Amino acid sequence: MSDGKQVGIVLVSHSAEVAASVAELAKGLAGGTSVPVAPAGGTEGGGLGTSAELIAAAAASVDRGAGVAVLTDLGSAVLTVKALLAEGDELPENTRLVDAPFVEGAVAAVVTAATGADLPTVEAAAAEAYSYRKV
């Protein structure tokens, strides 16, 4: 985007290690891009689970004015993000929960955001990852 704004991406997993690894993988496969990507995994105490506080902090850290795409791994992560969105003031404006597979969607989102694409385009690329066939 020529205005300097960029889509940020948050990866929410029940595991801090999984979220961080998927973020590293996506950025690496996108050529080490400068796309703002933040993992939000596990709980504040380092356990398995999800944390609204960690998700909100991650979203704030990647907000560059073009929206924030949030990808999740499992059901309760989705519920946590939906609750934050419903509250209305916990996440940056124009934050979207993206319905996409976690790993493939994250890679597609980061690669697409690296081109300067807008949030709907990043969301569509991540969602399209559902159609990737492995056989």
| CATH class division | Alpha Beta
Query: Biggest sheet: strands, sense, closure?
Result: 4 strands, parallel
Helices and strands: which structural class? alpha/beta
- Please give the radius of gyration in angstroms: 13 Å
Estimate what percentage of residues fall within beta strands.
Answer: 15-25%
Average pLDDT: 94
DSSP, total strands: 4
The succession of helices and strands, N to C, reads EHEHEHEHH
Describe the structure.
The protein has 135 residues and is α/β, with parallel strands linked by helices. It has a single domain (8-130), classed as Phosphotransferase system, mannose-type IIA component (Rossmann fold), CATH 3.40.50. 45% of the residues lie in helices and 18% in strands. It has 5 helices and 4 strands. It has helices at residues 16-29, 52-62, 75-87, 102-114, 119-128, and strands spanning 6-13, 37-41, 65-72, 95-97. The chain has a 4-stranded parallel sheet with strand order 2-1-3-4, with helices on both faces. The radius of gyration is 13 Å and the shape is globular. The mean pLDDT is 94.
